[in-house]
Amino acid sequence: QKFSDKYDSVLLKRSISLLIEGIEAGGEIGNLLNKIAIIIEENKIMRQEMAANVTTYVIFISFATIAAAPVLFALSGVLIKVITNLGSSLSDVGSASSAAGFGISFSKTGINYKDFRIFAIVSLLITSFFSAIIIATIKKGNAKLGFRYIPLFMVITVALFLAADKIMG
Fold first, then answer.
1. CB–CB of 149/135 below 8 Å?
2. CA distance linking residue 57 with residue 103, whole number of Å
3. Quick one: 74 exposed, middle or buried, by C-beta within 10 A (0-12, 13-18, 19+)?
4. DSSP for the chain?
5. Is 70 in contact with 77 (CB distance < 8 Å)?
6. pTM greater than 0.70 (yes/no)
7. 82 Cβ contact list (under 8 Å, min separation 6)
8. What values do phi and psi take at 8, rounded to 5?
9. Is 12 exposed, middle or buried (0-12, 13-18, 19+ CB in 10 A)?
10. Phi/psi class of residue 110: alpha, beta or left (left: φ > 0; alpha: ψ in -120 to 50)?
11. CA distance 156 to 165
12. Number of C-alpha atoms within 13 angstroms, CB side, residue 35?
């Protein structure tokens, strides 16, 4: 028991505790040590499998936050610009068609690109914040450890959005 108290290892403390309980119950030390070793090895393999499964989720969340969302927002901004330009150039056609009896009209009501850009940046910042916290929770088991990833995620997503917007625009 003194040996396990010297080291800060939960696994060692559990193993020594199992060994002591087995000896007190009258079990053989050799069999107890073999069973403890098997349990430790199975535990190690299970942790590796869990880490591999978790890595897939982390990669997906990171890609969606850092790469996909900024590019899709930039693409949406380009679509807003195109529709606005198309609507303004077809407004003359709309007034002529409504005079001729057709019900087509293009008005200026809609979303302004500058407002959309503010919305996109705020949305990306919020998404980056929560993604960093979720990734830290998945990988480390503690949401507080995600606070160091938040600035990195925010800078990358906003920079990628601005770059994609510039390139596509």
1. yes
2. 50
3. buried
4. -HHHHHS--HHHHHHHHHHHHHHHTT--HHHHHHHHHHHHHHHHHHHHHHHHHHHHHHHHHHHIIIIIHHHHHHHHHHHHHHHHHHHHHHHHHHHHHHHTT------S-S--HHHHHHHHHHHHHHHHHHHHHHHHHHHHS-GGGGGGTHHHHHHHHHHHHHHHHHHH-
5. no
6. no
7. none
8. -90, 70
9. middle
10. left
11. 14
12. 11
Which of 79, 95, 101, 156 has its CA nearest to residue 124?
A: 156
Of residues 121, 130, 132, the one with CA closest to residue 70: 121
Whole-Å CA distances, 77 to 50, 73, 140, 162: 40, 6, 36, 11
* Closest to 169 (Cα-Cα) out of 77, 70, 69: 77
**23: amino acid identity, one letter:** I
Q: What is the mean pLDDT of each run of 10 residues along the chain (169 residues)?
A: 82 85 82 86 86 85 94 93 78 55 58 91 96 88 85 95 92
